[in-house]
Design goal:
Helix content is 71%, strand content 0%. It is built from 7 helices and no strands. Helix 1 (7-31) runs antiparallel to helix 3 (77-126). It starts with 6 loop residues before the first helix and ends with a helix. The longest helix has 52 residues, at 201-252. The radius of gyration is 42 Å and the shape is elongated. It is mainly alpha-helical.
Length: 254
């Protein structure tokens, strides 16, 4: 599962690794093919032979052992530097980074699977399979969440009911059974009590009553504020009218 889940990522890493191995095979064929010993199975007379050998034995023996020559006195210092860079870069890029990328993908997948399983287990333990209500919603009720999932919304009772519908002739259905049967034919599960439970009805009714009471109080306060604002506006207009009358009376006086 950890491998197949991220199979596409591993495939791209594999293709990238083959590209790097082919590049190293080109370098080995161009500069180090004379170090191969055909008697020990290290053929490199052709490019494909170098590539196959590098894929087969490069990951196991490393290039240091594949392209080894005990007598290198005839080789120049620059050749030895190039050979060292070739071996070191192969070890870092292919043997270390490449393999760690593969292991990292697999380990991360294991971690994702573990987290997913933990989330599923938590959901199964703390959520009702039928109504999806959380366990803490039933903390203040007798029996709590355990009673709810064992008596009110027992998931196996729903399954047995569906089996009963399947094994019963339509002519023998009751009105409720016929309704559920028709809904199932339409792939409609609206008859499930989603976010509802009989033990929570009183609490929900109480909450709705509290909300209605709160809305009534808010509406009363809003009406009161509007009445006060209207009264202030009326008093201000009356005061302005009285001032206007006084100014006109003062202007007409001899």
């Amino acid at each position: 599962m950890a491998v197949t889940r991220n199979g596409l990522s591993l495939l791209w890493v594999f293709i990238l690794g083959m590209i790097f191995l082919y590049i190293y095979a080109l370098v080995a064929f161009g500069f180090f093919r004379d170090l191969h010993d055909p008697n020990s199975g290290m053929q490199c007379s052709h490019m494909y032979e170098c590539f196959i050998n590098l894929v087969h034995k490069g990951m196991i023996l490393s290039t240091l052992e594949m392209f080894w020559e005990e007598d290198i006195s005839a080789k120049s210092y620059g050749w030895n530097i190039g050979k060292a860079l070739f071996d070191f870069s192969f070890f870092i890029i292919i043997s270390t980074i490449g393999l760690n990328i593969i292991f990292g993908i697999i380990v991360d997948t294991f971690s994702e699977l573990r987290d997913s399983k933990w989330q599923i287990d938590q959901d199964m333990r703390n959520s009702c399979f039928i109504c999806s209500r959380e366990s803490y919603d039933f903390e203040h009720h007798p029996g709590g969440f355990e009673k709810h999932v064992k008596q009110e919304h027992y998931q196996w009772a729903y399954l047995f009911f569906f089996i009963h519908l399947r094994n019963t002739r339509i002519n023998d259905y009751s009105a409720i059974e016929l309704y559920v049967h028709r809904q199932l034919l339409k792939d409609n599960i609206s008859f499930f009590p989603l976010n509802r439970a009989m033990s929570l009805e009183d609490e929900e009714d109480s909450n709705e009553a509290k909300i209605d009471t709160l809305l009534q109080k808010v509406n009363y306060i809003m009406e009161k504020m509007k009445a006060q604002e209207a009264l202030k506006f009326y008093e201000e207009e009356e005061r302005k009218q009285q001032e206007w009358i006084q100014r006109n009376a003062a202007g007409k006086a001899p």
